[in-house]
Amino acid sequence: MQAINWKTTARDGNARTGVIQTRRSVIETPVFMPVGTLGTVKGERFEWLESEIDARIILGNTYHLWIRPGTDVITVLGGLHRFSGWNRALLTDSGGFQVFSLSELRRIGEEGVEFRSHLDGAKLFMSPEISMDIQAVLGSEIVMAFDECPPGDLGKEEIKTSVDLTVRWAQRSKDRFEELQAGGSDLGRVSFETSDLSGKQALFGIVQGGGHLDLRKESLERTVEIGFDGYAIGGLSVGEEKDVMYGVLGDLAPQMPESEPRYLMGVGTPEDILEAVSHGVDMFDCVLPTRNGRTGGAFTSNGDLNIRNATFRDDPSPLDENCKCSVCRRHSRAYIRHLYTAKEMLGPILISHHNLAYYLGLMADIRTAIREQRFSAFRAEVLAHRSAG
Length: 389
Description:
This protein is α/β, with parallel strands linked by helices. It has helices at residues 46-53, 62-67, 71-77, 80-84, 96-101, 128-138, 156-182, 213-226, 242-252, 270-278, 288-294, 326-330, 333-341, 346-371, 375-388, and strands at 5-12, 15-21, 26-29, 31-33, 35-36, 57-60, 89-92, 106-108, 113-116, 123-126, 142-144, 202-207, 230-233, 262-264, 283-285, 297-298, 305-306. The protein folds into 2 domains: 5-286, TIM Barrel, CATH 3.20.20; 293-388, no CATH class. The protein contains 15 helices and 17 strands.
Protein backbone atom coordinates (compact mmCIF):
# COMPACT_ATOMS: atom_id res chain seq x y z
CA MET A 1 0.00 0.00 0.00
CA GLN A 2 1.06 3.57 -0.65
CA ALA A 3 1.59 6.37 1.86
CA ILE A 4 -0.38 8.78 -0.35
CA ASN A 5 -2.71 8.41 -3.30
CA TRP A 6 -2.53 10.91 -6.13
CA LYS A 7 -4.77 11.26 -9.16
CA THR A 8 -5.23 13.89 -11.84
CA THR A 9 -8.85 15.04 -12.19
CA ALA A 10 -8.73 17.65 -15.00
CA ARG A 11 -6.36 19.23 -17.52
CA ASP A 12 -6.20 22.48 -19.44
CA GLY A 13 -3.00 22.55 -21.46
CA ASN A 14 -0.22 21.63 -19.06
CA ALA A 15 -2.19 22.96 -16.09
CA ARG A 16 -3.88 20.22 -14.09
CA THR A 17 -6.07 19.64 -11.07
CA GLY A 18 -5.76 16.64 -8.83
CA VAL A 19 -6.36 15.09 -5.43
CA ILE A 20 -3.74 13.96 -2.93
CA GLN A 21 -5.11 11.61 -0.31
CA THR A 22 -2.93 11.53 2.80
CA ARG A 23 -3.51 9.72 6.07
CA ARG A 24 -5.00 12.90 7.61
CA SER A 25 -6.39 15.03 4.76
CA VAL A 26 -7.72 14.93 1.23
CA ILE A 27 -6.00 17.79 -0.60
CA GLU A 28 -7.22 19.33 -3.85
CA THR A 29 -4.50 20.64 -6.14
CA PRO A 30 -3.11 23.05 -7.19
CA VAL A 31 -2.71 23.85 -3.50
CA PHE A 32 -1.00 26.57 -1.50
CA MET A 33 0.38 25.38 1.84
CA PRO A 34 0.68 28.01 4.61
CA VAL A 35 4.09 27.99 6.29
CA GLY A 36 4.15 27.08 9.98
CA THR A 37 7.87 27.38 10.70
CA LEU A 38 7.78 26.69 14.44
CA GLY A 39 4.62 24.61 14.53
CA THR A 40 2.46 27.69 14.05
CA VAL A 41 1.38 29.79 11.09
CA LYS A 42 2.38 33.20 12.42
CA GLY A 43 -0.59 35.17 13.76
CA GLU A 44 -3.12 32.53 12.71
CA ARG A 45 -5.17 30.25 14.94
CA PHE A 46 -5.68 26.72 13.65
CA GLU A 47 -9.44 27.21 14.02
CA TRP A 48 -9.28 30.01 11.40
CA LEU A 49 -7.18 27.88 9.07
CA GLU A 50 -9.63 25.02 9.40
CA SER A 51 -13.09 26.61 9.52
CA GLU A 52 -12.74 29.67 7.28
CA ILE A 53 -9.75 29.16 4.99
CA ASP A 54 -10.00 25.35 4.91
CA ALA A 55 -6.26 24.74 4.72
CA ARG A 56 -5.82 20.99 4.35
CA ILE A 57 -2.04 20.99 4.76
CA ILE A 58 0.57 23.29 6.32
CA LEU A 59 4.36 23.22 6.59
CA GLY A 60 6.65 22.64 9.53
CA ASN A 61 10.33 23.53 9.55
CA THR A 62 12.68 20.69 10.43
CA TYR A 63 15.68 22.88 11.29
CA HIS A 64 13.80 25.34 13.49
CA LEU A 65 11.78 22.70 15.35
CA TRP A 66 14.97 20.72 15.95
CA ILE A 67 16.57 23.82 17.49
CA ARG A 68 13.49 24.62 19.59
CA PRO A 69 11.59 23.14 21.29
CA GLY A 70 13.75 20.17 20.29
CA THR A 71 12.93 16.61 19.31
CA ASP A 72 13.10 15.49 22.94
CA VAL A 73 10.10 17.65 23.82
CA ILE A 74 8.17 16.72 20.68
CA THR A 75 8.85 13.02 21.29
CA VAL A 76 7.42 13.22 24.82
CA LEU A 77 4.34 14.99 23.44
CA GLY A 78 3.82 12.33 20.76
CA GLY A 79 4.81 14.12 17.54
CA LEU A 80 4.11 17.51 16.01
CA HIS A 81 0.38 16.92 15.47
CA ARG A 82 -0.27 16.22 19.15
CA PHE A 83 2.22 18.82 20.33
CA SER A 84 0.67 21.62 18.25
CA GLY A 85 -2.97 20.52 18.03
CA TRP A 86 -2.97 20.56 14.21
CA ASN A 87 -4.87 17.47 13.10
CA ARG A 88 -4.70 17.86 9.33
CA ALA A 89 -1.80 17.07 7.02
CA LEU A 90 1.74 18.35 7.55
CA LEU A 91 4.68 18.63 5.19
CA THR A 92 8.11 19.13 6.74
CA ASP A 93 11.09 20.47 4.84
CA SER A 94 14.45 18.77 5.27
CA GLY A 95 16.45 21.64 6.72
CA GLY A 96 18.47 22.01 3.52
CA PHE A 97 17.27 25.51 2.69
CA GLN A 98 17.89 26.78 6.22
CA VAL A 99 21.45 25.46 6.03
CA PHE A 100 21.83 27.35 2.74
CA SER A 101 20.55 30.53 4.38
CA LEU A 102 23.18 30.17 7.13
CA SER A 103 25.98 30.28 4.53
CA GLU A 104 28.31 32.33 6.74
CA LEU A 105 27.96 29.83 9.58
CA ARG A 106 28.25 26.48 7.81
CA ARG A 107 30.65 23.98 6.22
CA ILE A 108 29.41 21.35 3.76
CA GLY A 109 31.01 17.90 3.41
CA GLU A 110 30.08 14.49 2.05
CA GLU A 111 28.64 13.32 5.36
CA GLY A 112 26.50 16.41 5.91
CA VAL A 113 26.67 20.02 7.05
CA GLU A 114 28.39 21.45 10.08
CA PHE A 115 26.99 24.81 11.11
CA ARG A 116 26.25 27.07 14.04
CA SER A 117 22.83 27.74 15.53
CA HIS A 118 21.35 31.09 14.58
CA LEU A 119 20.16 31.39 18.19
CA ASP A 120 23.26 30.89 20.33
CA GLY A 121 26.09 29.94 17.99
CA ALA A 122 26.21 26.33 19.21
CA LYS A 123 27.94 23.94 16.80
CA LEU A 124 25.48 21.55 15.11
CA PHE A 125 25.61 18.85 12.45
CA MET A 126 22.86 17.87 9.99
CA SER A 127 23.00 14.89 7.63
CA PRO A 128 20.45 13.05 5.48
CA GLU A 129 20.05 10.49 8.24
CA ILE A 130 19.60 13.07 11.00
CA SER A 131 17.06 14.97 8.89
CA MET A 132 15.04 11.77 8.39
CA ASP A 133 15.26 11.01 12.13
CA ILE A 134 13.91 14.46 13.01
CA GLN A 135 11.08 14.25 10.48
CA ALA A 136 10.06 10.83 11.79
CA VAL A 137 9.71 12.37 15.26
CA LEU A 138 7.71 15.27 13.80
CA GLY A 139 5.40 12.71 12.18
CA SER A 140 4.56 14.73 9.08
CA GLU A 141 2.54 13.23 6.26
CA ILE A 142 5.10 14.32 3.67
CA VAL A 143 8.85 14.24 4.38
CA MET A 144 11.40 16.01 2.19
CA ALA A 145 14.75 14.46 1.28
CA PHE A 146 17.83 16.32 2.52
CA ASP A 147 19.38 18.44 -0.22
CA GLU A 148 21.88 21.22 -0.82
CA CYS A 149 20.31 24.46 -2.04
CA PRO A 150 23.07 26.46 -3.79
CA PRO A 151 22.86 30.18 -4.55
CA GLY A 152 21.30 31.06 -7.90
CA ASP A 153 24.41 32.85 -9.17
CA LEU A 154 26.83 29.97 -8.58
CA GLY A 155 28.94 28.80 -11.54
CA LYS A 156 27.89 25.76 -13.56
CA GLU A 157 30.75 23.55 -12.37
CA GLU A 158 29.89 24.28 -8.76
CA ILE A 159 26.18 23.65 -9.44
CA LYS A 160 27.10 20.29 -11.01
CA THR A 161 29.02 19.35 -7.86
CA SER A 162 26.01 20.35 -5.77
CA VAL A 163 23.64 18.27 -7.93
CA ASP A 164 25.86 15.22 -7.51
CA LEU A 165 25.90 15.69 -3.74
CA THR A 166 22.13 16.20 -3.58
CA VAL A 167 21.57 12.95 -5.51
CA ARG A 168 23.82 11.02 -3.14
CA TRP A 169 22.06 12.58 -0.18
CA ALA A 170 18.69 11.68 -1.74
CA GLN A 171 19.65 8.01 -1.80
CA ARG A 172 20.85 8.17 1.80
CA SER A 173 17.65 9.96 2.78
CA LYS A 174 15.54 7.22 1.23
CA ASP A 175 17.59 4.42 2.80
CA ARG A 176 17.25 5.90 6.28
CA PHE A 177 13.59 6.82 5.70
CA GLU A 178 12.74 3.21 4.86
CA GLU A 179 14.58 1.96 7.95
CA LEU A 180 12.57 4.34 10.14
CA GLN A 181 9.26 3.39 8.55
CA ALA A 182 10.01 -0.32 8.95
CA GLY A 183 10.98 0.25 12.58
CA GLY A 184 7.82 2.16 13.45
CA SER A 185 9.67 5.38 14.33
CA ASP A 186 7.12 7.67 12.69
CA LEU A 187 5.23 9.40 15.52
CA GLY A 188 2.41 10.42 13.18
CA ARG A 189 1.54 6.88 12.11
CA VAL A 190 -2.16 6.21 11.56
CA SER A 191 -3.75 2.77 11.59
CA PHE A 192 -6.65 2.08 9.21
CA GLU A 193 -9.05 -0.85 9.37
CA THR A 194 -9.96 -0.41 5.70
CA SER A 195 -7.97 1.93 3.48
CA ASP A 196 -5.81 2.00 0.39
CA LEU A 197 -3.21 3.90 2.41
CA SER A 198 -0.43 2.37 4.48
CA GLY A 199 -0.70 4.97 7.27
CA LYS A 200 3.03 5.70 6.88
CA GLN A 201 4.86 8.86 5.86
CA ALA A 202 5.52 9.76 2.21
CA LEU A 203 8.93 10.91 0.98
CA PHE A 204 9.50 13.50 -1.77
CA GLY A 205 12.74 13.94 -3.70
CA ILE A 206 14.12 17.36 -4.65
CA VAL A 207 15.44 18.39 -8.07
CA GLN A 208 18.26 20.94 -8.13
CA GLY A 209 20.46 22.37 -10.87
CA GLY A 210 20.21 26.14 -10.65
CA GLY A 211 19.34 27.86 -13.91
CA HIS A 212 21.07 25.22 -16.05
CA LEU A 213 18.45 23.22 -17.92
CA ASP A 214 20.78 20.30 -18.68
CA LEU A 215 21.70 19.95 -15.00
CA ARG A 216 18.03 20.20 -14.04
CA LYS A 217 17.22 17.36 -16.44
CA GLU A 218 20.09 15.27 -15.10
CA SER A 219 19.03 15.90 -11.52
CA LEU A 220 15.44 14.96 -12.35
CA GLU A 221 16.39 11.72 -14.10
CA ARG A 222 18.71 10.61 -11.31
CA THR A 223 16.17 11.51 -8.61
CA VAL A 224 13.36 9.65 -10.40
CA GLU A 225 15.67 6.64 -10.74
CA ILE A 226 15.94 6.50 -6.93
CA GLY A 227 12.13 6.66 -6.73
CA PHE A 228 9.97 8.88 -4.49
CA ASP A 229 6.30 9.48 -3.70
CA GLY A 230 6.48 12.97 -5.21
CA TYR A 231 9.02 15.36 -6.69
CA ALA A 232 9.92 18.92 -5.76
CA ILE A 233 11.67 21.71 -7.64
CA GLY A 234 14.15 23.30 -5.26
CA GLY A 235 16.70 26.06 -5.62
CA LEU A 236 14.51 28.67 -7.30
CA SER A 237 13.76 32.17 -6.05
CA VAL A 238 17.21 32.20 -4.42
CA GLY A 239 18.62 35.22 -6.21
CA GLU A 240 18.25 34.36 -9.89
CA GLU A 241 16.43 36.60 -12.38
CA LYS A 242 12.70 36.01 -12.80
CA ASP A 243 13.06 34.96 -16.44
CA VAL A 244 15.59 32.31 -15.39
CA MET A 245 13.12 30.86 -12.89
CA TYR A 246 10.31 30.87 -15.43
CA GLY A 247 12.59 29.28 -18.02
CA VAL A 248 13.42 26.43 -15.64
CA LEU A 249 9.74 25.91 -14.80
CA GLY A 250 8.69 25.87 -18.45
CA ASP A 251 11.34 23.31 -19.36
CA LEU A 252 11.44 21.12 -16.25
CA ALA A 253 7.91 20.83 -14.89
CA PRO A 254 6.38 19.11 -17.96
CA GLN A 255 9.20 16.52 -17.84
CA MET A 256 8.41 15.53 -14.25
CA PRO A 257 6.52 12.26 -13.69
CA GLU A 258 2.82 12.46 -14.48
CA SER A 259 1.95 9.92 -11.83
CA GLU A 260 3.21 11.85 -8.78
CA PRO A 261 2.61 15.33 -7.35
CA ARG A 262 4.93 18.18 -8.39
CA TYR A 263 5.95 20.69 -5.74
CA LEU A 264 7.61 24.09 -6.26
CA MET A 265 9.36 24.93 -3.00
CA GLY A 266 9.28 28.40 -1.46
CA VAL A 267 7.59 30.21 -4.39
CA GLY A 268 6.05 32.70 -4.39
CA THR A 269 3.93 35.63 -5.55
CA PRO A 270 0.50 35.16 -7.16
CA GLU A 271 2.17 35.84 -10.52
CA ASP A 272 4.77 33.12 -9.87
CA ILE A 273 2.09 30.62 -8.89
CA LEU A 274 0.04 31.28 -12.03
CA GLU A 275 3.16 30.80 -14.15
CA ALA A 276 4.05 27.53 -12.45
CA VAL A 277 0.50 26.18 -12.63
CA SER A 278 0.53 26.79 -16.39
CA HIS A 279 3.45 24.34 -16.60
CA GLY A 280 1.79 21.65 -14.47
CA VAL A 281 2.99 22.32 -10.91
CA ASP A 282 0.62 21.11 -8.17
CA MET A 283 1.93 22.30 -4.78
CA PHE A 284 3.27 25.59 -3.43
CA ASP A 285 4.42 27.18 -0.19
CA CYS A 286 5.76 30.62 0.66
CA VAL A 287 6.16 32.86 3.71
CA LEU A 288 4.97 35.97 1.84
CA PRO A 289 1.32 36.04 3.04
CA THR A 290 2.27 36.23 6.71
CA ARG A 291 5.66 37.93 6.36
CA ASN A 292 4.15 40.76 4.33
CA GLY A 293 1.17 40.88 6.66
CA ARG A 294 3.45 41.58 9.61
CA THR A 295 4.82 44.67 7.83
CA GLY A 296 1.49 45.97 6.53
CA GLY A 297 1.59 44.41 3.07
CA ALA A 298 -1.71 43.09 1.70
CA PHE A 299 -2.27 41.02 -1.44
CA THR A 300 -5.45 41.97 -3.28
CA SER A 301 -7.17 41.20 -6.55
CA ASN A 302 -6.27 44.74 -7.71
CA GLY A 303 -2.60 44.63 -6.79
CA ASP A 304 -0.63 44.84 -3.58
CA LEU A 305 -0.89 47.64 -1.02
CA ASN A 306 0.80 48.67 2.20
CA ILE A 307 -1.67 49.74 4.84
CA ARG A 308 0.85 52.07 6.47
CA ASN A 309 0.46 54.47 3.55
CA ALA A 310 -1.22 57.71 4.66
CA THR A 311 -3.64 57.34 1.74
CA PHE A 312 -5.60 54.83 3.81
CA ARG A 313 -5.95 57.02 6.92
CA ASP A 314 -9.70 57.58 6.39
CA ASP A 315 -10.42 54.94 3.72
CA PRO A 316 -13.70 53.16 4.54
CA SER A 317 -13.25 50.36 1.99
CA PRO A 318 -12.07 46.84 2.85
CA LEU A 319 -8.59 45.62 1.97
CA ASP A 320 -10.06 43.95 -1.12
CA GLU A 321 -13.61 44.63 -2.27
CA ASN A 322 -13.65 41.28 -4.09
CA CYS A 323 -12.61 39.29 -1.01
CA LYS A 324 -15.16 37.51 1.18
CA CYS A 325 -12.86 36.74 4.11
CA SER A 326 -13.95 37.75 7.62
CA VAL A 327 -11.45 40.64 7.71
CA CYS A 328 -12.76 42.21 4.50
CA ARG A 329 -16.38 41.68 5.53
CA ARG A 330 -15.88 43.49 8.82
CA HIS A 331 -12.99 45.95 8.84
CA SER A 332 -11.97 49.02 6.87
CA ARG A 333 -8.54 49.99 5.61
CA ALA A 334 -8.69 53.01 7.93
CA TYR A 335 -9.25 50.82 10.99
CA ILE A 336 -6.48 48.38 10.09
CA ARG A 337 -4.11 51.27 9.41
CA HIS A 338 -4.99 52.66 12.84
CA LEU A 339 -4.02 49.33 14.40
CA TYR A 340 -0.65 49.45 12.68
CA THR A 341 0.15 53.01 13.60
CA ALA A 342 -0.91 52.32 17.20
CA LYS A 343 1.29 49.20 17.17
CA GLU A 344 -1.65 46.98 18.10
CA MET A 345 -0.86 43.31 17.49
CA LEU A 346 -4.26 42.80 15.84
CA GLY A 347 -3.14 44.76 12.76
CA PRO A 348 -0.61 42.20 11.49
CA ILE A 349 -2.97 39.38 12.47
CA LEU A 350 -5.81 40.77 10.34
CA ILE A 351 -3.71 41.35 7.24
CA SER A 352 -1.97 37.96 7.58
CA HIS A 353 -5.37 36.28 7.77
CA HIS A 354 -6.63 38.19 4.74
CA ASN A 355 -3.47 37.34 2.77
CA LEU A 356 -3.84 33.64 3.48
CA ALA A 357 -7.52 33.81 2.52
CA TYR A 358 -6.53 35.58 -0.71
CA TYR A 359 -3.94 32.93 -1.58
CA LEU A 360 -6.17 29.96 -0.84
CA GLY A 361 -9.07 31.64 -2.61
CA LEU A 362 -6.85 32.17 -5.64
CA MET A 363 -5.99 28.46 -5.65
CA ALA A 364 -9.68 27.52 -5.52
CA ASP A 365 -10.37 29.84 -8.46
CA ILE A 366 -7.43 28.33 -10.37
CA ARG A 367 -8.84 24.84 -9.86
CA THR A 368 -12.26 25.95 -11.09
CA ALA A 369 -10.76 27.62 -14.17
CA ILE A 370 -8.79 24.48 -15.07
CA ARG A 371 -11.84 22.27 -14.66
CA GLU A 372 -13.84 24.65 -16.90
CA GLN A 373 -11.07 24.77 -19.53
CA ARG A 374 -10.52 28.54 -19.20
CA PHE A 375 -7.27 28.76 -17.26
CA SER A 376 -5.41 30.91 -19.82
CA ALA A 377 -8.18 33.51 -19.87
CA PHE A 378 -8.45 33.43 -16.07
CA ARG A 379 -4.71 33.89 -15.68
CA ALA A 380 -4.68 36.85 -18.06
CA GLU A 381 -7.57 38.45 -16.18
CA VAL A 382 -5.88 38.05 -12.78
CA LEU A 383 -2.61 39.46 -14.05
CA ALA A 384 -4.34 42.41 -15.73
CA HIS A 385 -6.27 43.38 -12.61
CA ARG A 386 -3.25 43.03 -10.32
CA SER A 387 -0.96 45.06 -12.59
CA ALA A 388 -3.61 47.76 -13.12
CA GLY A 389 -3.96 48.26 -9.37
